[in-house]
Amino acid sequence: MSKKLKWGIMGCAKIAQRAVIPGLHLSELNEAAAIASRDADKAKRTAEELNIGTAYDSYEALLADPSIDVIYIPLPNHLHKEWAIRAAEAGKHILCEKPLALNAHEAAEMAEAADKAGVLLSEAFMYRYHPRYDQIRDLIASGAIGEIRGIRSAFTFNNPNDSANVRFRKDWGGGSIYDVGCYPINAARLLLGQEPEAVTVNALFSPQHDDVDMMASGLIEFGGNVSLTFDCGMWAAFRNPLEVLGTDGIIEVPSAFVTPSEESGHIYLTTGGERRKIEVPYVNAYTEQADSIARSIASGTRLAFATSDAIRNMKVIDACLLSARERTRVTL
């Protein structure tokens, strides 16, 4: 690429400040060029703190900037559809935080708008760009653990007292399934290379948190009698493991979705009763995500993970939420 792609950050969310913007700063293909907030002082302060050249006091002003190539949207879930469509109509490529939308229908509308505008729309599951997931898929394909019998995963954290948190607003798309349960679901689909047939989910809906699911446990049924068992929560101790169980071995990822340190990225393979570490080079998954998108834009090729994948993931999330609310098994 002859020049770096210029990114506009829509909002000053913590995920943007702590992860995505630092990842862009490490990139040789991308640049965090502008940030917008409806609070002008907040936008200016954040721009100064994070070494971003331009601050805007509205999202509209950011979209009107002709120098911006890509818009990153870390807004609350209920705003994803509106601003992704408006960004597409402004001719900007888009990286939108997960989950892409409130439901599969909204996600399809967003994808249609991006297609019509001729721009790329990507969902921000950064973990998929970490090289260890290619290694895990290669291990599975090689038969290292035999036939897959099941996947177990979890993503939980403990933050019930943050009363102003957008994750505790039901009408804004709050809840643990939307926020962290989407990761195990997405990972199982990625590793199995197929879509689920049915889901059954039990959840703790908390009246003191606007009746969002603060904890959920589920069974996701795939073909071949293989299932994902998962749990997710915002009112439990932190953890984010993943395990792939085979007839002849086990692949373990102790920190499956976040890699804050070099050691946290390694995976473990157990075969023949012996457990060994497979070392994985330390990379910034947010940088890898941005660079992959940049290469697709520069070459005019498809994204590593098509927007259609995000729509399919939303269909599973929709089914999980329905199952949890109605306490029933939902077929897909």
From TrEMBL:
Molecular function terms from GO: nucleotide binding; oxidoreductase activity
One Pfam short name: GFO_IDH_MocA_C3
Gfo/Idh/MocA-like oxidoreductase N-terminal domain ranges (all copies): 5-124
Superkingdom to which the source organism belongs: Bacteria
Alphabetic keyword roster: Oxidoreductase
InterPro entries in UniProt: Gfo/Idh/MocA-like_OxRdtase_N, Gfo/Idh/MocA_domain, GFO_IDH_MocA-like_dom, NAD(P)-bd_dom_sf
Domain GFO/IDH/MocA-like oxidoreductase, chain residue ranges per copy: 133-252
PANTHER family recorded: OXIDOREDUCTASES, TRANS-1,2-DIHYDROBENZENE-1,2-DIOL DEHYDROGENASE
Protein family membership: Belongs to the Gfo/Idh/MocA family.
Protein name (Swiss-Prot/TrEMBL): Putative dehydrogenase
Organism per entry: Paenibacillus cellulosilyticus
